[in-house]
Structures are given as structure tokens and as C-alpha cells.
Amino acid sequence: MSALPSREDVNTSTPAAALRGENAPPAARSASVRSAPLDGPITRRLLGLAWPVLAVLTLQTFVGVAETYFVSYLGTDAVAGVTLVFPVFMLMVMMSNGGIGGGVSSAIARAAGAGRHRDAEALVLHAAVIGVLFGALFTLGVWAGGPALFRGMGGRDAALGNATLYANVLFLSAVPGWVANLLAAALRGVGNVRVPAIVTAGGALLTLALSPLFIFGWGPVPSMGVGGAALAVTCFNVGSLIALVLYMRSARSPIRLAPAKLEWRLFKDILRVGLLSAVGTVLANLTVIVTTGLVGAYSVDAIAGYGLASRLDYLLIPLLFALGTASVTMVGTNVGAGQHVRARRIAWTGALLSVLATGAIGMAAALYPGAWMHIFSNDLNVVGAGSAYLTRVAPLYALFGAGMALYFASQGAGKMAWPFAASLVRFAVVMIAGGYWVHEVSGSLNGLYWAIAASYLLFGGINLYGMASGRGWGRRQARHAAAEGASA
Predict the structure, then answer these.
(1) CA 300 – CA 80 distance, rounded (Å)
(2) Which runs of consecutive H residues, i.e. helices, occur in 73-173?
């Protein structure tokens, strides 16, 4: 039996009552009460949805750091090669999880909040179709254009060869990776964070075991170098897809992957949020790619130092993604149910939690940059380049955290104009100001890092202004919220 009540199951006059499970069958009521996004303490609900995601993504990030540690034994050229590919890989991960994936979660949460159970289930198949298409585009794009891209980012000789090998193997599994991430987003849209968390944790542990085996070899398994690191991630993507498909085809899943008629209106419901979010994600990762290229104008040591330091930026992603996906579910469900005041309170609560957490990490990194850098390298040039980045950029992590929290909340509300504008400004600052500093002024590496810090400041500031001014989610929704607050 589905955990979401359908119109036939529920005899109630309001979508909010429908999702809470009033007059619903016991199994549906039990499952909906467990998620209960429409009432109760906001902070507790957010953290309840966020902590399983945070726990497993922290584990997954640890596995990524461990993989970097293993690759560092192969030398600076291997680290530089993986660094060149990393922004493209993270583009795919962030687009499938936070971009298009956010559109999937938002569409399903809003459908659930409005009591449209059949649409919510049909959206799952639509998400899978979108995943196949985007995954294929990534595979073909990297295989065809990867070497030229990596060369443009500063890759040369052995570093370029390592980057090409790593990318060719890694993007073999782009399609299963995309589909698995969108299926997980569908489950999170109805408040089921447990199963995606279990699948991710199991896959992370598998990757941790396979990565050193494939990189260094043992017994009958040959040493594959950076290609082995990529092969371990490929196994993770394929295994995750199989596990999620089996679960979502079973009766235990709260929302099922089942045959449905493909309809443009449902694709549109996902893509009207997902595409703008995806473009914002593209801009975010293009910012990293452009930054890597600008750093590459200095030296291979600079690329390696920046790559190792900026890995800490990505360590923020599990935290922000965990809180963010909880916000998408809760905001989307409340917007679908017409509870606009509560939706805004959820957005601000998520932003405050993100600021506190990322601000603490940023200050620690800025004060003790060497503690992070020496995990990966003892090369003085590499450590110096990375430490210079952290002392200038890490203090702005708090504003980045606020901006990302409101980005996710805006996904849930289906209003992405201001977060998109913030991403565009961030990209423009790095592209224009950073490019001018490096190529026209021939300025120092530290000056480039200050430009990156300014981009973080503007990204957070624009998102905060859009939300605080009431413009971010539109005047109409602001009026709804004001009227709702006055009636309360």
C-alpha cells in the first residue's frame, strides 16, 4: 500500500489534511505522521529529515577524501589530473542531485502536498527518463570534448594523460549515476530519506574497499592507477541504481517506479524548477572550472594546492545538501498545501542552521589551513598555494552556506530566479575580475583568491536580499503569506 493517501483514500477538504493522513488508512496515516512536514517544530523536522542524509554523505565525502589520499601516492601529476576532472564530475553530481534532482523532489513534494498522489507516482518514471537523457549527454560530451577542456584548464603532459584516462572510465557510468540520483530525489520528495541513505552508505563502503584495490592492485587484480579510482566509482553508480530500482518496484516503497503515460505537463513540472536549478549548478561548476584554469596559469603546484584546498569547499556540500533537501521537501509540501508562512519560516531556519555550521568550518580552516593541507601533501609549494586559498576564502563559507540554503528552499517553492541571478553574478566575478587580474594585470595568485572570496560574498548577499525583501518568491506568494499570517 502506498504511504501517500490518494483522493479515493482520503475524505477531506484540504490538501494539508490529506498529507497529514486524516481519515486515511492506518498504514498511510502512520507513514505520513512520521514525515509530518506540515506541522510541528520546524527545526526538529528539518534535522530529522537531514541527519540521515548528512551521515551518509559525510561518509561518502570521507571516501572521496580517502580516494584523494590514495591517488596522492601516485604523484603530483596524478593529483593534478584528478583535480582537472573533479569539477566536471561534481557538475554531474550536483546537477543530478541538487539541480534536476531538486526539481524532481520539488515537483513530487508539491504534488503530495496538494493530494495529487497519481501525479506524484507518475513523476518518478518521468524523472528516470530525464536521467537517461542527461546521463548520455554527459558521457558523450566528456568523451568527445574532455581532452580539449582539460588542456584549456592547464593540463599538460602526464597530468593531461591522467585526466583523460580518469574521465573516460568515470563517465562510463554517467547514465546509471544520473538515474540513481533522480530516483533517490523522488524518495526524498515524499520524506523517505532512509532508503537513499542506506544505499549511499553501502555504496560508499564498497567504493572505499575497491578504490585502493583497483588503484594499486593485489593478487590477480592489476594496478590501474587513476583509472582504478574511476572504476570504483563506476561500481558504486551501477550498484546504487540496481538497489533503488529493486526497492522502488516493491510494495514497500512509499512511491513506486511503475509504468505511466509520459506527459509533457509532468516533464514541465520537473524541468521548470530543475532546468533553472541545473543552469545555476552549471554556473557554479563553471566557476570552479574557470578558477582551476586561472590557477593553472601559475604552475602545476598551484593547481594541486588549489585542488586540495578546494576539496574542503566540497566537504560543505554534504551538510548543505542534507539541510537543503530537507528544506525542499518541507517547503515544497507546505507550498503545495497553501501554508506559505510556514514555508518561509522553514527557509529561514534552514539558512540559520547552515550559517552556523559552515561558519564554524570556515573559521577553523582560515585559522589552521596547514592542518588540512598536510593531510595530503608535504610539498611546500603545494601546501603554500592551498593555505593561501583557505585563509582568504574560508571565512566567507558562512555566506556561501546561507546562499545555498535559500537556493534549496527556493527550489521547494518553485521560485529560482534570485538564486540563479546570484550564481550568475558569482560566475561573472570570477570570470571577468579573475580573468582580468591573471591575464591583463599578471597579478599574484593571492589576488585571484581575493576575487573568489568576493564571489562568495555576493552569492550569499544576493540570496539573502531576495528572500528578506520578499522579491525572491514573488509578490503574489508574499501576499498569500501576509494574508495567512494575518488570519492566524
Answers:
(1) 7
(2) 76-94, 100-113, 117-152, 157-170
As a whole number of angstroms, the distance between CA 186 and CA 178 comes to: 12
Phi and psi at residue 218, to the nearest 5°: -170, 130
How far apart CA 6 and CA 15 sit, in angstroms, is 11
Query: Which residue, chain included where needed, has cell 595530503?
Result: 376
Asked if residue 38 lies in contact with residue 333, where contact means CB atoms within 8 angstroms, the answer is: yes
Q: What ranges do the domains of the chain cover?
A: 39-487
- Closest among 477, 425, 414 to 103, alpha carbons compared: 414
Q: Which residue has the cell 543552469?
A: 279
The burial of 253, by beta-carbon neighbours within 10 Å (0-12 exposed, 13-18 middle, 19 or more buried), is given as: buried
* Dist CA 142 CA 156 (whole Å): 18
Cβ–Cβ under 8 Å, residues 221 and 214: yes
Q: What is the pLDDT of residues 349-398, one digit of tens each?
A: 999 999 999 999 999 999 999 888 888 888 888 889 899 999 999 999 99
Half-sphere exposure of 232 (CA within 13 A, CB side): 30
Cell of 485: 499570517
Contact present, 86 and 170 (Cβ < 8 Å): no
C-alpha–C-alpha distance, residues 437 and 224, integer Å: 40
pLDDT in tens, 1-37: 334 433 333 333 344 444 444 344 434 433 443 345 6
Integer Cα distance of 383 and 380 in angstroms:
5
Q: Cell numbers at residue 3, please? A: 504511504
Residue closest to 77 by CA, chosen among 244, 280, 301: 301
Q: Which residues contact 219 (CB under 8 A, 6 or more apart)?
A: none
Biggest distance spanned by C-alpha atoms of the chain: 72
CA–CA distance, 300 with 153 (Å, rounded to integer): 11
pTM, 2 dp: 0.71
Q: How far apart are CA 305 and CA 220, in angstroms?
A: 35
Distance of CA 332 to the CA centre of its chain: 17
The sign of the dihedral angle between the CA atoms of 259, 261, 265, 268 is positive
